[in-house]
Write a structure and sequence with these properties.
heterodimer; A: Immunoglobulin-like; six-stranded mixed β-sheet; four-stranded antiparallel β-sheet; 10 strands; 49% strand; globular; B: 53% strand
């Protein structure tokens, strides 16, 4: 299973763009890259998922280079409510219909300041 | 999507006792997972519980300590047996849903304190 490495913590200010990079050197061909957000006393929540290139939704963008050995979650104009732990995971459902379980790394603790 | 509820939301137990945590999903799902999250830590996968088969446990977790039931496609239980203070943690269940985003949905967790 691919191991992920992220910064332990990051600080930002309201209105700034935040980029969190995750390395996953051993990612397999069939692995998706998925980011989850977790607030205190809640279960993780899906943010965004991609396989390659760039994916954008109403919450974030995900940039994945051609070699897929890393990915960057981009949060535009963060607010105080974006303070949370962000997890990068590889695995999940396979193109073949199988499933590679999700293993959580340490995550990145993002603190947004006024 | 899937909406997941867990019972109890929290409990305080005495060492040596057992607690069964329930996980209910609002739709039928094949894949369910149980995680543990110790205070300030990341999530650790305990086991995968697919309906119709025995649960598959991760390294460091055994069936005698964490027996799991999966009687149907919407329900599962995790029992924490013969508890010790080291079992104090948040226990979360999740389900895997194959769809546009192939994501896992997580329950709110059960906060367990063992005295």
């Amino acid at each position: 299973l691919a191991k992920t490495t992220q910064p332990i913590s990051m600080d930002s200010y309201e209105g700034q763009e935040v980029n969190i990079t995750c390395s996953h050197n051993n990612i397999a061909t069939n692995d998706y890259i998925t980011w989850y957000q977790q607030f205190p006393s809640q279960g993780p929540r899906f943010i965004i998922q991609g396989y390659k290139t760039k994916v954008t939704n109403e919450v974030a963008s995900l940039f994945i280079p051609a070699d897929r050995k890393s990915s960057t979650l981009s949060l535009p104009r963060v607010s105080l409510s974006d303070t949370a732990v962000y997890y990068c995971l590889v695995g999940g459902f396979l193109f073949s219909g199988g499933y590679n379980k999700l293993i959580f790394g340490a995550g990145t603790r993002l603190a947004v300041h006024p | 999507s899937a909406v997941i509820s867990q019972k109890p939301s929290r409990d305080i137990c005495q060492r040596g006792t057992s607690l069964t945590i329930q996980c209910q999903v609002d739709s039928q799902v094949t894949m369910m997972f149980w995680y543990r999250q110790q205070p300030g830590q990341s999530l650790t996968l305990i086991a995968t519980a697919n309906q119709g088969s025995e649960a598959t446990y991760e390294s460091g977790f055994v069936i005698d300590k964490f027996p799991i039931s999966r009687p149907n496609l919407t329900f599962s239980t995790l029992t924490v047996s013969n508890m010790s203070p080291e079992d104090s943690s948040i226990y979360l269940c999740s389900v895997g849903v194959r769809g546009k985003y192939n994501e896992q949905f997580f329950g709110p967790g059960t906060r367990l304190t063992v005295l």
